[in-house]
UniProtKB/TrEMBL annotation:
SUPFAM superfamilies: P-loop containing nucleoside triphosphate hydrolases. It comes from Candidatus Liberibacter asiaticus str. gxpsy. This is Double-strand break repair protein AddB. Pfam families: PDDEXK_1. Residues 770-1008 form the PD-(D/E)XK endonuclease-like domain. It comes from the Bacteria. The lineage of its organism: Bacteria, Pseudomonadati, Pseudomonadota, Alphaproteobacteria, Hyphomicrobiales.
Length: 1040
């Protein structure tokens, strides 16, 4: 090695990094004995350049082509510091550094999880007894072990990256951290001892250790002499291994390092303090370690050079120089605020308004508004002849929102940081498949699997959509009982048989043809055949099947998944070929390759694969746009843009909240001089500082997130405080145009209030029959009748329908009916046994969820005693009881029929009859029935007087009753109330009212209006209120 001063340069944030560096290389500024000759296109091939990221490699290559005039030139060797290539190293060198192949991330997680499970089983009794009154909660499942393995892997990476010793970790004294540290320390032996031993058994290296060894080998190779120039560009040397490599290059005779944005504005005294703090291992002051220049100060100290020795490349305009000075002042540590205030008073800070004249601030009301504003800003940058524009944000949700909003303008771009695999269709079909097979009563999983766009089931494409819709309508909607996917065939057949025997099939089911139903049955056969490999291991509905290894579960799952996604030609057109499919396929392959012997049952396997998927990211292979980009902070480093948007400038995003490790607290990390959280904040601050070097810059933030107020990023707050009120107002004023466009984008001319619907259907379209119970709705809400009977619109129930009061009423009514038919009363022999038999048989048919079954069963037992007591009182006056008796009454004057069933009619010995209706609630109230707002009982009385109950000869009605089958058993008689209401009066008046209403409707004198009786509507809602848009027009009417 030649003895020379380290060759170090820096490029200001406002200068395009590669555009300044490349000419400096070509003209001999970077490396004295190298100068590019255009006549020698092979000359650049001798140059080696290291950059921080793969995206920076692409950018550097593009800039080389642009600057060298797009001539035939062999470009330099360009490498990413994170991917040092080892092919050129000799076998002896690899062996000397113990460079076994690195273990994959998946294999590491599974191996660590296995070690964790072993540790759990062998946990020392002394640790178990730490807190005997509060037993320790240990990872009792493989899925929990994988979660712990992720945290353990993070600790391993931190320790190895910072090149600390495990002995330092175990030397921490438990007196300072409490007794729990004993448990954590014992747990961490998995990483320090057992994991190291396991790597030897696997003949593998840890990923970080492998990379560090490669960097050492690379440094050793460089030290032996390399003819061509060697340059490390854009790294801050925050990792010790990288810093050593940078030191080697900086001291190499043909070497140079180019630092990004070294701050030359910081006063020397403060810079020296930062340098001192960066090298002081015992320093507990985190203020300086979060400074954007902290890593660079530490690097320069390691290189043994002063800031003044670093040479500057590129020219900076006065405005951008002033802006960088302002940003530098805003980052001064708090204990130097006096110096900052003095600079402001003495006008040492340049004209901040002028320096930031091309900067705007968007403060949106919420995340949606922020995303639309950003999308508009990116779209407008295309009209302003901006060659390259980008959004930089660490908020993935914001990035996805902006990507979606850009499609408004026909712009489709990828998020460079990728999207979580867990948010893709491939992940959703996998989890739906496993949940549908192994979890009881997961109705949504079964429905999602059936309707999933990737699910083909080998079914003919021509009929697939039709079969899926038919299966949904026949069997998947409105289920109240427990079932799993293996019950699907019987469920479909039962539903089809029930519909054939049902005279009141909903319109949405009645539209299904016999061919549709056959397709649904055939599709179920295909589904069950597809999932056979996994169903074999489902021994009962609790999924407590025998344990399998994770590798075996993966193979079975892949087989089933492929079966489900096969098309009619036995091909997989959409499963493995897109980037999402390739990522999932790679995950499965890695799991199988590990040969993991961790055992898990079916439910545990679902949790395991879910946790493994959570750590995977799908990255775009090819950029869809060369002008617009959505980048994370890492991907954006060293890139140059004409317009730059810093999105999500709130605390928690800039800087992003650092994940807390459950085994190493921030205090412990500080004691070990790790300070990983502070280092991350400092790196993010440096990213913010570098981004401010873009002339046309837009800051964005939302004032509320998830409807919760947000706090502006600490760095934005510092800048705004430094600039003052006028500065803040001007930034917002320049950003207001984007907000104005956002608010106008979805703006439409003011629409008149939606009017209350008043349809006038023709006479031939109007119903010719009504049921007794339907008349209440015809009187109060004719529009609901119009929607259901004329438009033939029926509410489609949810996939899972919890048993409700209607179901309870039907169940109780059926039991009461059987009690009456069997003439059971309190004097019946063995009444308790008979009652139990009847109740049990009806409840078993319903197959209710256990928590509902026990409540309803207890309630009915209480009701039954009161009911039997009532029956005993009235039996002496009754000649005969009729239950569920049908009636059909013709009303010739208006050409309709009134039909229905009476719950109960008692033929009395006096020659009269009592008509009874069972209710399980308080509605309809007695007064409602008397005012004929609900005339069901009164119309049944009218039908009886007209002889429409063919089984009953008597035409005289004595009383009308509601029997309330509820906790407080009650009987309401709506007739003969203080001599006001007789059955004859109510029956005659109800029939007259019905004739008048129907006549008005038939003649077109009254529309089928929505909620005719608004004043009575307070507790009345209809399934068709959304169709009638009641919420929009009801405020215009006084309903008090």
């Amino acid at each position: 090695m030649h003895n020379k001063k380290p060759n170090v340069f820096t490029i200001a944030p406002s200068s395009p990094f590669f555009r300044e560096m490349i000419p400096a290389l070509l003209n001999g500024t970077l490396v004295e004995n190298f100068r590019y000759d255009p006549l020698n296109p092979l000359l650049l091939a001798s140059v080696t350049i290291y950059v921080p990221t793969k995206r920076a490699i692409q950018e550097l290559r593009s800039e080389f082509i642009e600057i060298t005039g797009k001539k035939s030139t062999i470009l330099p060797i360009i490498k990413s510091l994170g991917d040092v290539v080892e092919e050129k190293f000799t076998a002896d060198l690899l062996l000397s550094y113990n460079l076994n192949p690195p273990v994959s991330n998946i294999q590491r997680l599974l191996e660590l999880a296995r070690l964790i499970l072993i540790w759990r089983n062998k946990l020392p009794d002394i640790i178990k007894d730490l807190y005997p009154e509060s037993p320790l909660s240990l990872p009792i499942s493989p899925a929990n072990a994988i979660w712990l393995a992720k945290n353990l892997a993070d600790i391993i990476d931190i320790i190895e990256t910072e090149e600390k010793k495990w002995e330092d970790l175990h030397a921490l004294k438990n007196e300072k951290y409490g007794m729990w540290w004993l448990l954590a320390a014992d747990f961490l032996k998995i990483a320090s001892k057992y994991w190291t031993e396991r790597l030897v058994e696997l003949n593998a290296s840890s990923p970080v250790g492998y990379q560090i060894a490669l960097m050492r080998a690379e440094a050793e190779h460089l030290m032996k002499g390399t003819k061509g120039p060697i340059i490390i560009a854009g790294s801050t040397g925050s990792i010790p291994a990288t810093a050593r490599l940078m030191s080697t290059v900086a001291n190499h005779p043909n070497g140079a390092i180019v630092l990004p944005g070294l701050d030359c504005h910081i006063p020397t005294a403060i810079w020296n303090t930062i340098t001192e703090k960066s090298t002081n291992i015992t320093s507990s002051n985190t203020t300086y370690s979060t400074h954007p220049q902290y890593s660079l100060a530490k690097l320069l100290d390691f290189l043994d050079i002063k800031r003044e020795d670093v040479k500057r490349l590129g020219n900076v305009s006065n405005e951008m120089y002033g802006r960088s000075m302002v940003i530098s002042k805003s980052f001064l540590p708090p204990d130097t605020s006096d110096m900052r205030n003095t600079d402001i008073l003495e006008n040492k800070i340049p004209n901040i308004q002028k320096c930031f004249s091309d900067v705007a601030l968007i403060e949106a009301d919420n995340e949606r508004e922020e995303a639309i504003s950003i999308a508009i800003a990116l779209r407008m940058s295309l009209d302003e002849n901006k060659k390259k524009s980008a959004l930089i944000t660490a908020d993935r949700n914001l990035a996805r929102r902006v990507k979606l909003e850009l499609t408004r303008f026909g712009i489709n771009i990828d998020i460079s940081a990728g999207i979580p695999l867990s948010t893709t269709l491939h992940s959703s079909i996998l989890t739906s498949l496993l949940n549908a097979i192994f979890k009881l009563n997961d109705f949504m999983a079964i429905a999602t699997l059936v309707k999933h766009p990737l699910a083909k089931f080998g079914f003919p494409e021509k009929y697939l959509s039709r079969a899926k819709n038919a299966l949904e309508l026949v069997a998947l909607r409105g289920n109240k009982n427990s079932y799993d996917i293996m019950d699907l065939k019987s469920l479909v057949l039962d539903r089809i048989a029930t519909q054939k025997n049902n005279t009141h099939v909903p319109h949405w089911q009645s539209r299904l043809s016999e061919e549709d139903k056959e397709l649904a049955v055939l599709l179920v056969d295909h589904i069950l055949q597809c999932i056979t490999p996994l169903v074999t291991y489902k021994t009962n509905k609790n999924s407590t099947c025998g344990n399998l290894s994770i590798s075996d579960w993966t193979k079975l799952t892949v087989t089933c998944l492929q079966n489900v996604c096969l098309d009619e030609h036995r091909k997989l057109p959409n499963l493995w070929f897109e980037e999402e499919g390739k990522t999932l396929s790679s995950l499965f392959s890695k799991i199988i390759e590990t040969g993991s012997c961790i055992k898990a049952n079916a439910i545990e396997w679902i949790d395991i694969i879910t946790r493994l998927i959570d750590g995977e990211t799908v990255k775009p292979k090819i950029e869809k746009s060369s002008t617009l980009f959505i980048l994370g902070t890492l991907e954006s480093r060293l890139l140059n843009f004409d317009t730059l948007i810093l999105g999500g400038l709130n605390e928690g995003v800039w800087p992003k909240n650092t994940a807390k490790n459950p085994f190493l607290s921030r205090v412990m990390q500080s004691d070990l001089n790790l300070k990983t959280a502070e280092k991350y904040i400092g790196q993010a601050a440096h990213d913010f500082e570098m981004a401010n070097g873009t002339r046309h810059l837009i800051y964005t933030r939302s004032l509320r997130e998830n409807n919760i107020p947000t706090i502006a990023s600490r760095w934005l707050q510092r800048l705004l405080v430094l600039g003052g009120t006028d500065f803040f107002d001007n930034l917002k004023k320049r950003g207001q145009c984007y907000l104005d466009w956002t608010r106008k984008l979805d703006y439409t001319t003011k629409q008149p209030h939606y009017k209350r619907p008043k349809p006038f259907p023709p006479l031939e379209a109007q119903p010719r029959t009504y049921s007794f119970s339907e008349i209440k709705q015809l009187i109060n809400d004719p529009y609901a009748v119009y929607a259901r009977r004329i438009l033939k619109l029926d509410f489609i129930p949810h996939f899972k329908k919890d048993p409700d009061r209607t179901d309870r009423g039907t169940l109780f009514h059926n039991i009461i009916t059987e009690l009456i038919k069997k003439r059971i009363n309190k004097n019946t022999p063995e009444i308790n046994h008979l009652m139990k038999q009847i109740i049990d048989s009806h409840f078993e048919k319903e197959n209710l969820p256990p928590h509902i079954d026990i409540i309803w069963r207890h309630l009915f037992h209480k009701i039954s005693h009161s009911f039997l007591e009532h029956e005993e009182k009235i039996q002496s006056s009754i000649e005969k009881i009729f239950v569920n008796i049908p009636a059909k009454m013709a009303i010739e004057s208006i050409g309709i029929h009134l039909t229905g069933f009476a719950d109960r009619i008692d033929l009395l010995k006096s020659g009269f009859v009592d008509i009874t209706d069972y209710k399980t609630g308080d509605n309809p109230k007695k007064e409602t029935a008397q005012k004929l707002i609900d005339p069901q009982l009164s119309l049944e009385a009218a039908a009886l007087k007209a002889g429409s109950f063919s089984q009953i000869d008597c035409r005289k009605v004595a009383n009308l009753f509601y029997i309330r089958l509820k906790q407080k058993f009650k009987i309401d008689c709506i007739t003969n109330d203080k001599k006001k209401y007789s059955a004859d009066e109510l029956s005659e008046k109800s029939l007259k009212n019905l004739i008048e209403i129907v006549t008005l409707l038939q003649n077109g004198e009254q529309p089928f209006i929505s909620h005719l009786r608004l004043s009575e509507k307070s507790n009345i809602q209809s399934e068709y209120d959304h169709l009638a848009r009641v919420a929009e027009w009801r405020e215009e009417y006084d309903i008090s």
